[in-house]
Amino acid sequence: MKFDKNLLKSFARVHAHLCGDGGLYFYKTSEKDRINRAELSYFNTNEDLIKSFRKDMKLLFNVKMTYHPEKIRLKVKSLRIAKVFLEYGKYGTREWRIPDLIKNSTKSIKLEWIKALSHDEGYTPLKRNIIRIKSMNSKGLKDTKNLLDSIKINSWITGQNSDGSWYLNIRKEKELSNFTKQPSRRKIAERGFEPPT
Fold it and tell me: What's the CA gap between 85 and 11, in Å, rounded?
């Protein structure tokens, strides 16, 4: 799938959210006309992020997603869409990486990816001018640091922590100076495979 500049911004945000509080699931079905199914989901209590994700998916694939507020889950079932995202890597907690499509893009596209991941996985410690992202995925964090290096925003990785996680600390400077994060859901346990319902 080819993306123009506006579509690439939407793709960057959706990709980062799938690496953060999203999920891409493949499973077998007993339906008469179908053997395999796929589902793309995004979990969040922040209404602005839900609306943004839904808008980006509509722009990218002209698809209407279903929101289940009791499960804080936005989802769509589509093998076609899942296969597009699968072309750009895996999305497990310890597996996600930033694809070359984003690495080789413009500064504005890179910032969209970084901001989207920060909204899901990051927080802003009190009295510190940084955004801190906690992850079990050291390689993914190194990719993110390299992305920040490429746009000359200072960041550093600390860890490994006692729970096996790492921190990416991002200086709130330049285009990230005014970054804020509204409250959103806390991660659903380590986000292993969660069968679609």
Answer: 9
Strands across the sheet containing 36-43: 22-28, 36-43, 73-77, 66-68
- Overall pTM surpassing 0.85 (yes/no): yes
pLDDT tens per residue across span 130-189: 999 999 999 999 999 999 999 999 999 998 999 999 999 999 999 999 998 865 544 433
Q: Does the CA dihedral 109-81-92-42 come out positive or negative? A: positive
Token pair of 159, please?
């860890």
- The amino acid that residue 106 corresponds to is T
Strands 73-77 and 155-159: unpaired
Of these ranges, 26-30, 32-36, 95-99, the one predicted with the greatest mean pLDDT is: 95-99
Tell me the pairing of strands 166-171 and 66-68.
unpaired
Closest CA to 117 of 91, 151, 83, 154: 91
pLDDT at 191 over 70: no
Closest CA to 9 of 52, 65, 62: 52
Spatial distance between the Cα atoms of 28 and 15, rounded to a whole number of angstroms:
24
**Residue 24 dihedral angles phi and psi, to the nearest 5°:** -125, 115
Please state the rounded mean pLDDT for residues 96-122: 97
Contact indicator for 155, 145 with CB cutoff of 8 Å = yes
